[in-house]
Amino acid sequence: MSNPIIQTFPLGFPWKTQDPFLFAVYHLDHYPKGNGAMGPDSKLLNGRNIGNDFTIKDGWRMYHGSTIPGFPYHPHRGFETITIVNKGYCDHSDSLGAAGRFGEGDVQWMTAGRGVQHSEMFPLLNDDAENPLELFQIWLNLPKADKFVDPHFKMLWHEDIPIVQEKNATIKVIAGDYKKAIANNPAPNSWAANNDNEVAVWNIHVDAETEFTIPKATTEVTRTLYFYEGSEIYFGDKKVNPNFGISLDASQVASFKVGAKKGHFLLLQGKPIAEPVAKYGPFVMNTDEEIQQAMDEYRVTQFGGWPWPYPDNVHEKEKGRFATYPDGKVVEKG
């Protein structure tokens, strides 16, 4: 068997991706106790570049938040966001009137389509204990034919996400299928909604000093394995250190042995869309002219405006996990 590794690369911020994925970022923030108003103690904000704080100080970042960490309202067009919150919570609000609080393993799948605004804030709900946050956000492209579909908001609650428990590994199947475990349906206009595109998003945890095998794909896809926590892994005699990505030949099975510490991985896979990509900040289209059009439309329409009282909107502190959909439907998960 030949070596399945095409290349390895260090994990920056954000992570390098392959078509059909546009962007992937890993947030691990060891937030302190809350101040009663879902933010950190104001004394801890001294010396931070509030509004643009991406430097890890004391183990955490404020991002674009001023009193509560997170990302106040901002627009998107032309792609989808997949937000996986393994630890902590995310408060979502958007220009469709949809809202939610999700975390502890939940996933939000949002199709921006022709245009949407949303905010993603990280409320510090615990006042008597620290508030760790572990979150992935993945941008999945839309083909030209679907870039102007209606925006769509969907929750994949952790109780419903397939988790495969093997002898030495746990595989959370967020998109695609792993062996006989089939993920929940994604948003309806997603590139992942067509099984022929073989899109997979798996969060994999493998025990120390054991071996794990990734099955080969059935079609021509790109496949990237992100090794974000652990000691080291070995593909045969090829050693890969943590905080590296591995581009794999998906036409082969890929077996690796985990070293002295448990290994944590994210796998992204899919058939390339293979269309021109024009990107400018939160807009992803096919041409520069379409990017200019997106900016012009956003200035005029604000993609429907902002129906919430604050740009960094958060929900009541006592509220549990929930989702309010644009049609008014409410799901309470507690």
UniProtKB/TrEMBL annotation:
SUPFAM superfamilies: RmlC-like cupins. This is Pirin family protein. Gene3D superfamilies: Jelly Rolls. Residues 202-304 form the Pirin C-terminal domain. Residues 63-140 form the Pirin N-terminal domain. Belongs to the pirin family.
